[in-house]
Specification:
The protein has 286 residues and is mainly beta. Helices cover 5% and strands 18% of the residues. It contains 2 helices and 9 strands; from the N terminus they run αβαββββββββ. The longest helix is centred in the N-terminal third of the chain and has 10 residues. Pfam families: LPMO_AA14 (PF22810). One of its GO terms (molecular function) is monooxygenase activity. Keywords: Copper, Disulfide bond, Glycoprotein, Metal-binding, Monooxygenase, Oxidoreductase, Secreted, Signal.
Length: 286
């Protein structure tokens, strides 16, 4: 199955338009890269980062998104012990954040597709109509994650204080994506926390990564627990080899700042073979 996946990756390497973001209130570049202009039709936040210096890939600095926060007082809200929903799409126009949602469908491209959408062949090749999903079918969708840092100033976020707190397996897939929040996440500072949406596709296109910024805050929490410093994840087909506790985002395939080694015959992803259990990460506290 792993060999099949790698073959599929080679077969699909011509697909380069491979872009998806998590759209929701509180995101950076919500209206595109120009502060003061609210573009309903923006896809600035969707482009991945690949082979860039750390100063460029970090929070999409390559396109200036780290300097375009949401409007004051707007946050992605994270209900402690509950869930929050974002819209995975290739353009803001395909979400309910634009045009009263009239261009949305169940899918990230605003189109109609079968429930068992997949590429052609057996085993299925990469989905040809939508390279932006980077997958053959739902089961090959790599999984996406959110991380949180308890600092309000995005320039104070570090690999050690940005902790992965939730993982949603087999995404991106449909537009609506709902993530679980650990019950013990403490409240954020008055000006909010900084969050990141994260994805490392398993192939079907350039092996890039996604790190998209949000201003976020935890609601409904009286927890006094603290997050542990994040450690780099490790490839661990054997569970005993996994990094336990608070983990860093995966930084991979960049010119600088990578924190994982790419295994010979497998993928890098937010999944159990990298120590990320599905759902809320409840082991991230001191
Ligand atoms: C999904 O696609 C992969 C790669 O082609 C294949 O190995 C796997 O069997 C497929 N899964 C399902 C449920 O069809």
């Amino acid at each position: 199955m792993i060999a099949v996946g790698l073959l599929a990756l080679v077969a699909c390497s011509s697909v380069v338009n491979a872009h998806t973001a998590a759209f929701a209130h509180g995101m950076y570049c919500h209206g595109g890269p120009n502060p003061g202009h609210d573009d309903q039709n923006t896809n600035t936040a969707v482009a991945p980062v690949y082979n860039l210096p750390r100063s460029q890939w970090w929070f999409q600095a390559d396109r200036g998104c780290d300097r375009v926060p949401p409007a004051p007082g707007v946050f992605l809200e994270l209900p402690a012990g509950g869930t929050f929903t974002v819209e995975l799409a290739h353009n803001r126009a395909q979400t309910t954040l634009s045009y009263d949602g009239q261009y949305t469908s169940q899918w990230p491209d605003g189109g109609e597709h079968p429930e068992d959408w997949k590429g052609t062949g057996n085993p299925p090749g990469c989905i040809p109509e939508d390279g932006a999903l980077h997958t053959n079918n739902q089961s090959m969708a790599a999984g996406t994650a959110f991380a949180i840092s308890y600092v309000s100033d995005i320039s104070a976020v570090t690999m050690e204080n940005l902790v992965v707190f939730t993982v949603l397996p087999n995404t991106p897939w449909k537009r609506i994506a709902t993530y679980a929040v650990p019950r013990d996440l403490p409240p954020c500072p008055a000006d909010g926390c900084t969050c990141a949406w994260l994805w490392v596709p398993k192939g079907c296109g350039e092996p890039n990564m996604y790190m998209q910024g949000y201003k976020c805050k935890v609601t409904g929490s009286t927890s006094t627990r603290r997050l542990a410093p994040a450690q780099p994840p490790r490839y661990c087909p054997n569970f005993n080899d996994c990094t336990r506790g608070a983990k860093q985002m995966i930084a991979t395939r960049q010119a600088e700042g990578n924190n994982v080694e790419v295994p010979q015959n497998d993928f890098v992803s937010y999944s159990e073979v990298w120590g990320f259990s599905p759902g809320a990460q409840n082991d991230i506290f001191v």
